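FW: tagging you since you asked about this chain on Friday. Here's the raw sequence from the shared folder, copied in full. Didn't touch anything.
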Amino acid sequence: MGVVNVTPDSFSDGGEWFRPDDAVAHGRDLSAQGADVLDIGGESTRPGAERPSEAEELRRVLPVVEALSAVAPVSIDTMRASVAAAALDAGASIVNDVSGGHADPEMAHLVAERGVPFVAMHWRGHSKHMQERARYDDVVADVCRELVAGVEMLLAAGIAPEQVVLDPGFGFSKLAHHNWELLRRLDEVRALGYPVLVGTSRKKFLGLVGREGREERPPLDRDVATAVTTAHALVHGAWGVRVHDVVAAVDALDVAVALTGERR
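HL: got it, structure written out here
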C-alpha cells in the first residue's frame, strides 16, 4: 500500500504532493514501482495535527482519487463518512479509517452499505491529544482487547467479518517501546482472526532506534529501518504494509520471500 499524502503538514512528506497534479504523478510512480494499492489521504494524523474542514479534505482528495482509481486500486484514508462516500463514488474501493469507525458514527453504516474492505485501526483519540493516552498495562493485550471491541461495534452495524482488516496503530497513542512490543508480538494480533495491515513507515520510533544520546533520524532517513520492519511483517503473516518508499518495501518483501519460501 503506497502512501499518497495530499496534505501540507504530514510528518514525512507534508506539502510535497499537495497539488493534485503532483499527487497523481506520485501515485502513478508508486504504482509503477510495485504498489498494489494507493492509499490517498487529505488529513495529517501526525501527533498534534489540527484537522482540516470537511470541505477542504474533499477538495484535496477527490480529484486525486478519481485520477488514480484508473491506475490502481485506491484506498481512501479518512475518518469522515462523507469523505469516504464521495471517494467511493469517485472510484476508491477500500476505506482506511485510523479511528476504526469511532470518530464518525456514520462510517460503519456506510461501509456496511457499500460492502467494501474496511481497515480499522487501533485508536484512542484524535492526533492533537493521542500521545497523552499512551498508557497500557500490557500494550499487546490492551490493543487486542480494544480492537476486538471495535470489531464488535462494526459487526453490529452490519459490516461483514470478511470486510474487516485490522491495523494495530503503530505510533498512534503509543511510545517507542509500545511499538516494538507490538512488532515482536504481531502474531497475537493476527490470532484475532482478521487480516492485519502494518503501518510503521518512517514513524518516530524508527528514527529513535540505535540513537541513544544522539539526534533522531529525520523521516526520510528511516526507510532502511522501515524495510526491516516490512520484512518482519511478511514473516509474521501481515496482510499488507503501508509504506512511503515502495521500492525499498518491494525489495524487502522479495528478500523475505526468498528466505522463507512464502508467497508475497
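FW: DSSP finds ten helices and eight strands in the chain.
HL: agreed, and The two ends are 13 Å apart (CA to CA).
FW: great, closing this out.
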